[in-house]
């Protein structure tokens, strides 16, 4: 761009002319003063840029540092090995024999027993949806709660205090409580794995037997009933299989994607099976249920969850916990922590930028939710306002 350069040069001269033109002297002196002028102009602009630019850059990195690193994630991190996705066939008007056959499996004479084991925090509504969805297929419910959050905050024993709500599961329930260790400043994952080890013991105490089906998932990762029914009725299913769940945020109004995979189903082997919430195999059964994150009734539950679990470091500003802000974020389908999508390619990051669009479909949701729509209204599309208590 010769024009721009020329313009810059002329302008530079212009500034200096005013300051320097009165000096009548030799060529050398003129050259010197020109150099000085050029330097002075240069210094001035650099200084100005530094004075304004550096604080802006520092402020941007401070407020958006996470965004910068997340946006650049595709450069420094490659995606994990893709799952082998198993097609999932289901229709209520197809026999179990045919469903098993469609998956390449044989149907059993009698179904396997099913044990559902969860680590419980405070998500009572979601637990009620979960247990009602799974109840027709589950032989044993196992639930562990603690008086400590993963971040070492004291928490009430929400399940124990509301146990009468789960009367229908009582005869099949193995309940356990583990006291927190309350270590200050520790990585939340340490308390989490400590609690999962306890859950393993509790599963052993329950009436689980070898070859039973064990569901390992967080409370808010709800396998659909028909998925569990399929896996308990068919033979030759994989020993361990992950479930692909639809990812929802705040309620069933905001469908993010179908990439939830942490839930897994195990054929129980005593002494070998360990409760885990990470990737354990390559096989993933498609469209097997719902993962409803941050699906709480009260605004206060959101603030609690934001501080209680492995998200604490994301609360970069106190105002993130402001109830009006939380309510506004929920209704927009935006991000509570003002973060960028965690993706592995620029294409996916860009596709997911901004708020999640609303879905108006309440088709294929947990049946107990629709049967009790009045009680769980806030989980259905078009009802984002929460109770403030
Ligand atoms: C499927 O539905 C049709 C029509 O409603 C019915 O006649 C048929 O018996 C059903 N089949 C099965 C396998 O349930
Ligand atoms: C947590 O539970 C343990 C075990 O019951 C108990 O000893 C401890 O005092 C409790 N801590 C708090 C802070 O409630």
From TrEMBL:
Superkingdom assignment: Eukaryota
Name of the encoding gene: LOC100843118
Molecular function terms, GO-annotated: beta-1,4-mannosylglycoprotein 4-beta-N-acetylglucosaminyltransferase activity; glycosyltransferase activity
InterPro entries referenced in this protein's UniProt entry, alphabetically: Glyco_trans_17
GO cellular component: membrane
Membrane-traversing stretches: 42-62
UniProt-recorded name of the protein: Beta-1,4-mannosyl-glycoprotein 4-beta-N-acetylglucosaminyltransferase
Residues in coiled coil: none
GO BP terms in the entry: N-acetylglucosamine metabolic process
Hydrolase found in the keyword field: no
Keywords, in A-Z order: Membrane, Transmembrane, Transmembrane helix
Pfam family, one: Glyco_transf_17
């Amino acid at each position: 761009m010769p024009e721009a350069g020329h313009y810059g040069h002329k302008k530079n001269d212009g500034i200096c002319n005013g300051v320097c033109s009165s000096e009548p002297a030799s060529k050398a002196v003129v050259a010197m003063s020109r150099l000085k002028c050029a330097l002075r102009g240069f210094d001035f602009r650099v200084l100005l840029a530094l004075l304004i630019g550096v604080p802006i850059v520092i402020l941007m990195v401070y407020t958006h540092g996470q965004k910068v690193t997340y946006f650049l994630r595709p450069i420094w991190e490659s995606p994990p090995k893709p799952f082998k996705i198993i097609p999932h066939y289901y229709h209520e008007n197809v026999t179990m024999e045919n469903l098993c056959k469609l998956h390449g499996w044989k149907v059993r004479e009698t179904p396997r027993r099913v044990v559902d084991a969860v680590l419980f925090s405070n998500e009572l509504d979601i637990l009620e949806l979960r247990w009602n969805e799974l109840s027709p297929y589950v032989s044993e419910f196992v639930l562990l709660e603690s008086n400590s959050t993963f971040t070492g905050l004291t928490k009430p024993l929400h399940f124990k205090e509301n146990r009468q709500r789960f009367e229908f599961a009582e005869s099949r329930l193995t309940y356990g409580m583990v006291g927190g260790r309350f270590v200050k400043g520790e990585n939340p994952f340490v308390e989490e794995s400590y609690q999962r080890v306890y859950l393993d013991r509790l599963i052993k105490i329950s009436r689980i037997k070898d070859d039973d089906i064990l569901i390992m998932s967080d409370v808010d990762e709800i396998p659909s009933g028909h998925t569990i029914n399929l896996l308990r009725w068919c033979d030759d299913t994989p020993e361990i299989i992950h479930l692909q769940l639809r990812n929802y945020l705040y309620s069933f109004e905001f469908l993010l994607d179908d990439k939830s995979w942490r839930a897994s189903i195990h054929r129980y082997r005593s002494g070998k099976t360990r409760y885990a919430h990470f990737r354990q195999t390559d096989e993933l059964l498609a469209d097997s249920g719902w993962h409803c994150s941050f699906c709480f009734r009260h605004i206060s539950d959101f603030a609690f969850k934001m501080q209680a679990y492995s998200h604490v470091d994301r609360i970069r500003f106190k105002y993130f916990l402001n109830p009006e802000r939380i309510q506004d974020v929920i209704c927009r389908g935006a991000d509570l922590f003002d973060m960028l999508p965690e993706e592995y390619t620029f294409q996916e990051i860009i596709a997911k930028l901004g708020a999640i669009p609303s879905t108006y479909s309440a088709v294929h949701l947990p049946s107990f939710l629709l049967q009790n729509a009045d009680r769980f209204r806030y989980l259905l599309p078009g009802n984002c306002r929460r109770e403030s208590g």
